[in-house]
Every structure is written in C-alpha cells, then in structure tokens.
Design goal:
15 helices, about 350 residues, Rossmann fold, alpha/beta, single chain
Length: about 350
C-alpha cells in the first residue's frame, strides 16, 4: 500500500491575474492602469508628464500660479469654483483660505463630481471648508443662496473640458479615441451630439460651426454632415476628413477638432450658460471681490471681455484686465493643453 501523501488544500478563492495589455505600451484607455493609479505608479506618471503629455484619466490644472496671483486667496475667504473638474485649482485655493474659509465647488458632471469630492475630502477638507454641488455654473446665484453663503470673495471659472472627460472614450469628446458620439457634460440630460446632427438643418449647422468654432469650411462641412447618422466619434471624424479632400492633412485635422468643439458647445449650451454666469457674476461678488475666468475659444473670450468692459463702464467693477494672460512657454511645453488658454480677471467695486 502506497503511503498517504499530504497535499496542500487549494485556496478558497483562486488568485486572479490582472488583465495584461498586448504589446509594450497600452493603447486603450481602459488598459492604462498605471496612469489611473498615480500613487502606485508615480514614476510612470512623472515620465508621461515630462514628455509633455497628460496622464490618462487625470487632469493638470492650467495657469495655477497666475490664477492664484489674480485671486489672491486669504484665510477666511468665501470662494466659488464654478467648474470644479478634478479639483486642482480648488485644492490650491482651499489651502490658502484656511482657517475659516469655505469653497463651494460646482460641477454638472455626475460621473466626475463624486470622485473629486472624495479626493478633496481625503486631503482633509471637511464639510466646514469644502461644499460640493452638482450644478452648471449658470446656477451660481442659486448655489450661493442654497448654502447661505451670501456673496463670494473669490470666483473662478475654468471653461475648458477636463482631461478625464477628454480621455474617456465613453464620453465621446475625443477626436483620437473611438466612442459613442455623445459629448454631454451630464450624460443624464439633453441629447447627444449624434441626435443633434441627425435633426439639424444644413443652414443651422453651418451657422453653428461658424459661431462656435470659426470654422472656415462651415458651409462645405454642413452640406456633408447635416441630417446624417453618426454613431461613433471615429466614424464622424472620418466623414469630416472625407468632406475636405483638397486641403492638407494638418488643416483637415484642425477642422476635425473645431467641428468637435462646435458640437460640444452646442450640445451643452455652453455659450448660454456662460452668458448667464457673466450676467449674475457682479451680484454674486462681495465689494472688492476678485473673479478670474479661463477661456479656450475666441467665442468664450469675446463674451468675457465684453461683459467685464461693460461692468467697468457701469461702475460694477473697479478694475478689469486690459488684455489676456497666457500660460508661460514652459507650461505650454510641459502641458500642451494649456496653449489656447486665455485668462481674464475683474475686481468688484467697493460700493
């Protein structure tokens, strides 16, 4: 009789290996696990940043030093970040308005807002210092009233799309990654870009492309795209290129980006929301309060300039920027997404 052998008991739950991507470098958004977990893979993230790129699923706040210089946050201030995003700007402001200060962060994105709130809570900013509210920035007056904050000492609005939204193909913002043609900041409201394109008339689309992105080929593109069905971003981007066969590849790529931008602005009614913010802004600011608005498109910048200049003439603002502030060459090199940014500021009159 053979001696009885003692074999180890199998584990209750077999070890499951993490799914590996094929090849040397990850190509799909979902496979970039190192960049999604920056604390565990700091070296990888640092390497990506050093190459002049933004790590997948993260956001690098733009012109932080310039914004802090303009807003001059100090302990006890009431601040409003109208576009909370990843919370990079808010994190810096929160640190400077303590003790006693409160920052109200607004964001319409139901996917990213809870993540950012959790991140800032993890940095030690409790409910007495940081309030998060799901709202478009057009609701600034209502948000201040809801939290009984009165007026603000500091107001910031960064009108750029966050890198988390751009990098996630499921959101449909990117011209590089294939995904559903959606583009909604709040996927729970409104119609996606695909539905807008299917319904819009040729004349309306041409006007939209001209107004929202200064697209030189607006008429040609509207003729090729209006009333058509496009379910995916890659399909739509290819249709834009095919409609412009006689221009250089580089120029066609720029047109693709402008068309995506124009549709995003329309889908989210961004100009209307900005006009509402600018109209409400003076009434939301305490005497001597400071406001800073970061724009990424000429249509946005024109609205901000016009509103600030009108407020200065009416005596609501004591001073406004006489030009735009831009990201430094060093920042533009390390973070190319900062290149189109324009910063304008206004200071509320004391009366």
């Amino acid at each position: 009789m053979m001696p009885e052998e003692n074999f180890p008991e199998p584990p209750a739950t077999p070890h499951k290996r993490r799914k590996r991507y094929s090849g040397k470098n990850p190509r799909r958004f979902e496979e970039k696990y190192k960049e999604h977990d920056p604390q565990r893979h700091a070296a990888t993230v640092a390497k990506v940043i050093a190459s002049g790129k933004t790590p997948a699923g993260t956001h690098r706040p733009i012109m932080v030093a310039e914004i802090l210089a303009v807003l001059a946050p100090k302990p006890g201030d009431i601040a409003v970040d109208c576009t909370l995003g990843h919370g990079g700007h808010s994190q810096e402001i929160l640190a400077r308005i303590q003790p006693g200060g409160v920052l109200l962060g607004l964001d319409a994105d139901p996917i990213e807002l809870p993540k950012t709130e959790a991140r800032l809570r993890g940095l030690g900013f409790g409910a007495e210092a940081f309030l998060a509210r799901r709202s478009n920035f057009a609701g600034i007056a209502q948000a201040l009233a809801a939290h009984a904050l009165g007026g603000a000492d500091i107001v910031l609005a960064d009108l750029g799309v966050s890198s988390m939204q751009i990098d996630d193909p499921a959101r449909g913002f990117s011209v590089k990654l294939d995904g559903p043609l959606d583009m909604r900041m709040n996927p729970q409201r409104g119609q996606p870009a695909s539905a807008l394109l299917e319904k819009i008339s040729l004349a309306a689309l041409a006007a939209l492309l001209d107004e929202n992105s200064d697209e030189l080929n607006a008429a040609v593109l509207a003729s090729a795209l209006a009333g058509k069905k496009f379910a995916r971003t890659s399909e739509f981007a290819n249709a834009i290129r095919l409609a412009l066969p006689h221009i250089k590849i580089k120029d066609a790529t720029l047109s693709v980006r402008r068309v995506f931008q124009a549709l995003r602005i329309a889908v989210n009614d961004e100009f209307s929301a900005l006009d509402t913010l600018l109209r409400q802004l003076p009434g939301c600011m305490k005497p001597g309060a400071r406001a800073a608005i970061l724009t990424f498109h000429s249509g946005e910048d024109r609205r901000v300039k016009k509103s600030f200049d009108a407020g200065l003439r009416a005596g609501m603002y004591a001073a406004v920027s006489d030009g735009v502030l831009r990201a430094t060459p060093a920042e533009q090199h390390s973070n190319p997404r900062s290149a189109p940014a324009k910063l304008r500021w206004a200071r509320r009159a004391e009366n």
